[in-house]
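dumping this here so i dont lose it again. seq + smiles for pyridoxal-5'-phosphate
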Amino acid sequence: MALELSARIARIPAYPAAEGYAWKGPLTRLASNESPWPPLPAVREAIERELATLNRYPDPTAGALRAALSDRYGVPSERIAIGNGSCDILLAAGEALLEPGAELVYSWPAFSVYPHLAAASGARAITVALDDQDRHDLEAMAAEVTVATRLLIVCNPNNPTSTAVDFQRIADFLQKIPPHVCVILDEAYCEFNLSHDPDATVDLLSEHPNLVLLRTFSKVYGLCGLRVGFALCGAVDLPHAVNQVRQPFFSNSVAQAAAVEALAHQDAVAERVTRTIAERISVEERLRALGIGPAASQTNFSWFDLDGPLRGGPERRDEQELQEAARREERVVRALAERGILVRAGGALGRPGALRVSYGTSEENERFLSALAEIL
Ligand SMILES: *Cc1c(COP(=O)(O)O)cnc(C)c1O
């Protein structure tokens, strides 16, 4: 390498991207928690209408989208941030809040983008183990808060473990966090969570100016290819700060128009949630019949150890068990890939021997389950 790169480039982990984008045959894509259903016809029409205006820059304030979100959630539009995917807001929040000497707290395993925030800023990352049901341990997280803490991230429901913590535990947890600490609740999968009303947390914003609810059009709305996400915030500080650190036109006009249209079809969202949950119930049943004990999913994917019921994190296993688990995982992921079925290997997500498998259509899930039965 001839270029002299900044020191942080060596620290920033590469995002564990799904493989198979170069594969030519028919693929069963169950590796990225995408929606198996294409965008709604009305959304595609909105996208087509927008194409004629692409000689103009997009609205840098995303005014129409923020107004539509404000109507939908009852949060004033100046407290809503838009992003080129919700990851864009997450990374901008890291840039706005963190610096050397500052601390950031999150659980592990959780979303693979979180380690990026500390690496990019030089802040210290404090990771907290999940509990024995693979859920966030909110008490243990609250106990890690110090005067140096700037940001705390709770992924609920959690990717990759699929589990959720109850609404009341979140409400109690927020009472314990000092107001100078920004709390990001990453709710990318909240629509699939049956343990409480997905919008219950919106009511917490009025009590907690430091709270940020991070949401996305990538999952239930099926628009991940367009990149658009949003944050509902308890105060204007974070929306202002994330806009300061980004380029002026971070959100493209097609994405904004598609998101406005998608929001108007909540009946379709509800219907997709129902279909996804029907798949969830049937996939979990079939996994259990194979002797596998998936975590209690509140998402559009399952998380499980390949050697039976979940047995907790690496810290609860010895070295030899970990190596065996990693080999089994590698063998199963490869055998599935040879059949054109892409799933996510747990090793890259912090749990050797586990798999994360998104729910596809019934046919895709069937293809995955019969292949898994054959391989095991
Ligand atoms: C998929 C996902 C997101 C969404 O990312 P986008 O940038 O909006 O596509 C955010 N957080 C978690 C935990 C996710 O799994």
